Structure formats: structure tokens, C-alpha cells
Amino acid sequence: MNQKIHKSYSGFTLLECLIALIVLSGLFLLIGPFIQITQETHQQLQQTKEKEWEIFLVQLEYELQEDLFVKVEGDTFYLKNSTGGDVLIEPYQHLIRKKENGGHQPMLTEVATFKAKQENKQIRLEVVFLDGHKHWGQWEIPE
Questions:
Q1: Angle CA(44)–CA(127)–CA(45) in degrees, nearest 5?
Q2: How far is CA 96 from CA 9, 12, 129, in A?
Q3: Quick one: pLDDT at residue 3?
Q4: Distance (Å, rounded) from C-alpha 122 to C-alpha 140?
Q5: CA dihedral 83, 86, 92, 97 (to 10 degrees)
Q6: CA dihedral defined by 100, 102, 106, 112, rounded to 10 degrees?
Q7: Cα–Cα distance between 129 and 83 in angstroms, integer?
Q8: Tens of each residue's pLDDT in the chain, 143 residues
Q9: Three-state SS string across the chain, please?
Q10: Rounded to an integer, what is the distance from CA 126 to the centroid of its chain?
Q11: Pairwise CA distance, residues 97 & 95, whole Å
């Protein structure tokens, strides 16, 4: 009556554990550079947005110097050009555009909200981009 009882153990062998560790370490090695590339791309996009904002400010300042300022009403700038034509700088869909002579020129893109406010002899702008970043600018109204 000597019977040997064989118990069956379920589990992983050492070889299976080593293969799983090798696969996981390979995945982690691939994820590291992917995260770094994603961060670098995000930083480059932010720098592009900053440059676009600065270009917009320079372009707006140029418009305010070249054209005759009339008023700010709502969120729209009203100007007169050298020939007496109307020039509007206004929000339109997700951009800020310059509207003149029946055409328009985009000045700033990916804009969620745009607020323009005239206070005495100053104009204050507040812009929120679609990605949530906020910028503001302020000008003295030329006499």
C-alpha cells in the first residue's frame, strides 16, 4: 500500500519568469525615449505659440500706429486706414482676424476667447488659447 501521491503545483517556472522580465525591461526601454520625444514636442509647440503671440503683438502694434484708432466696441477694434477705409480687428471662430476691403487676414490662431477693453487712453487684451494658456497685452492709444 505504498502509494506515492503526486501533487501538481501550478505556477511559473524560472525560465518563464526570466522571459517575462526580459519582455518587460524591453518595453520600459522603449517607453523612455517615447516619453522624452513627447515632452520635447510639447516644448516646441509651446515655443511656437509664444512666438505666434509675440508676432501678433508686433503686428497689432504696427496696425495701431499705421491706422487711425476709432474705438473698441465689444471685442472688436475699429480703425481707419490711410484712405479712410474701415479696418476691423476681431475674433472670428477660433482666430483673431484683420478685416479690410472685404477680405480678411488671420492674425492669431487657436484662440478660445478674446477680450478687448478700452479704459481711458489704454487698450487691454486678454487671450485664452484652446490649450488653456492665457496671455494679455496693453497699449496706450495714440493721440
A1: 10
A2: 70, 62, 11
A3: 66
A4: 5
A5: 20
A6: 100
A7: 34
A8: 566 666 666 777 888 889 999 999 999 898 988 899 999 988 888 888 888 889 988 888 888 788 888 888 988 989 998 888 999 999 999 999 999 988 999 999 999 999 988 888 888 889 999 988 899 888 887 66
A9: CCCCCCCCCCCCCHHHHHHHHHHHHHHHHHHHHHHHHHHHHHHHHHHHHHHHHHHHHHHHHHHHHHCEEEEEECCEEEEECCCCCEEEEEEECCEEEEEECCEEEEEEECEEEEEEEEECCEEEEEEEECCCCEEEEEEECCC
A10: 14
A11: 6
pTM for the model = 0.66
Instruction: Give the three cell numbers for residue 99.
Output: 478685416
Burial status of residue 40 (CB atoms within 10 A of its CB: 0-12, 13-18, 19 or more): exposed
The residue written with cell numbers 514636442 in the block is: 41
**Alpha-carbon Rg of the chain, whole angstroms?**
30
N-to-C CA span, the chain: 115
